[in-house]
Every structure is written in C-alpha cells, then in structure tokens.
Amino acid sequence: MDRADSRITPARDLSPPVQRQLMDRMRGGRPTQARARSYALAAVRETFEETGLVVGAANQDAPPKSRHADWNAYFQQGALPDLSKFRMVARAITPPYRTRRFDTRFFIGDASAILSDMHDTGGASGELLDLHWLTITEARDLELPNITRAVLAEVEARLVEPAKANRRPVPFIYFRGAKPVQDKIAP
Fold this sequence. Notes:
Blueprint: H1 16-23, H2 33-51, E1 57-58, H3 69-75, E2 79-80, E3 86-93, E4 103-109, H4 136-140, H5 146-160, H6 162-165, E5 170-176, E6 179-185
C-alpha cells in the first residue's frame, strides 16, 4: 500500500461484508473504512502496474489527478477503480523469521471488471517475467510458495461452488513463533 492509495476515490466502494473482513484484526492503529478501502485500491494499482491490466469502471469524464505516477497512468486508460467487484479470499502475514514481512490481503474479482485486453501484457512494468495466463491446474504444477498454493485452493473452492462463495470464511494465515496458524475471518 502506498500513501496515494488512501487518497483515491473509487467509482464504487467495497461491499459492507468485504469492508468488515478487511477491518477484522487490522493492525497499526484503529481499524477504519478508509484503510480497508486502501488495501483494495492498492490491489487495483499493483495489478495495473505489474501486469498492465486495467481493472475498474469506465470513466467518460476528465481523468482525476494524483501525485502518484502509476495512478495517473491508470486514470489515463479511461478508468476509475470499482471496488464493488472485489471479494476478499485470504489474508496472510509473512513468518517472523523472514527479512521482509508483509501483511497481505488477497482478492478475487470477476473478469468483466477488466477494461483492457486481458491478453495484452504490453503495458506491464517489467517487474514480472514471462507474464501469461494459467489455469489453476497449470499453476499448481509450478514451483510455488505454500501461501500461493493455499490461496489458489481457496479461489478454486469459491469457483467450484459459487453459490456458497460469499458465505465462506476467509482464511487468515499467520505465525506464532515458527508455527503457522490458520484462523478464519467471518464472511
């Protein structure tokens, strides 16, 4: 999350259940809806920055301005973030023995929220190598971190039973010492 993410106004906000999930056990001060929104806005920005995909709602008006270059580039694509399309599928905190630690939220959204050509990765930042789409089965065959495998399993479970997806608790994986703990965040 960058500071600029908290200053962006979305076309549509997060649904109340997703806001509650994002605020559950929020660290670093009092939980706020603005910070919850910032997590989803960071996902929109990072997706655009790293893959070139524009996720959001079409904007027919003059593009908003930001001090953040990546947000300005996103707005120039004729888009505004539409957070109503996102569902939270997992949260994970990096183990304490890692040099760099992250408290990450994972989202899923419908492909109809992609405004750009989903097969054109020419706008990607170059931060990722060999960018291409995979099925979940193909992804499982790759050498992946355990957390990525856990998130893929959760995404697959939600896709297999879409009628139950919004009632599924969100896995929350963190560590006590070196031992992983898998908790749940209520739907």
